[in-house]
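Good morning N.,

You mentioned wanting to compare the apo and holo forms, so I went ahead and generated the holo version with zinc ion. This is what I fed in:
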Amino acid sequence: MKGKLNLYGLSLIFFATLLLAFTSCADKAQDEFVLELDLFGAQVEVPPATKSFPNVNQKLWPYFESFERAGKERGLNFNLAEENISGDIDFIEEGEYWGSCTTSADGSMSIIIDNEFWNASNDGYKELIIFHELAHCYLGKEHNDEQFSNGVCKSIMRSSNAHCLDNYTVNTRSYYLNELFGL
Ligand SMILES: [Zn+2]
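and this is what came out, ligand included:
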């Protein structure tokens, strides 16, 4: 009986602490959200392109279209085919980089994806890096190396210096895309 009372007492302390945690951080609900590491999540698959993008390597078309679709699902209408964006897969000398996006003075944007990365990657990684580069150039997004308390990256805009864990799967994709498009 004594044991039970102690357990009850402990439960009270636990709930009191929990209540305190909730009441004191009620305005920081967003910060308390932790994206779980989705180790066994299914890989993201990107369907074939149904439209073309001038000056963009045909292999990148499905991902450009996927970017447009992801924006549209969030109420943002992009038409990348009408933008001055070129894209190609090429050798990038700095081994650390998988992709780059350069904006020129005339407003044109040029995305390069490293061919070694391309050949070694699945759809999800390709989408992640192309979305990352499009977000730099087209959405003007900067790097974000923040991580959750479990080490998972908060954004696909992590830099190559970040120490967080990539976690882009079918289950986490909508979180990352909401974050990317500022929702
Ligand atoms: Zn970057």
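Confidence is low (pLDDT under 50) at residues 1-29.

Happy to go through it together on a call whenever suits you.

Best,
F.
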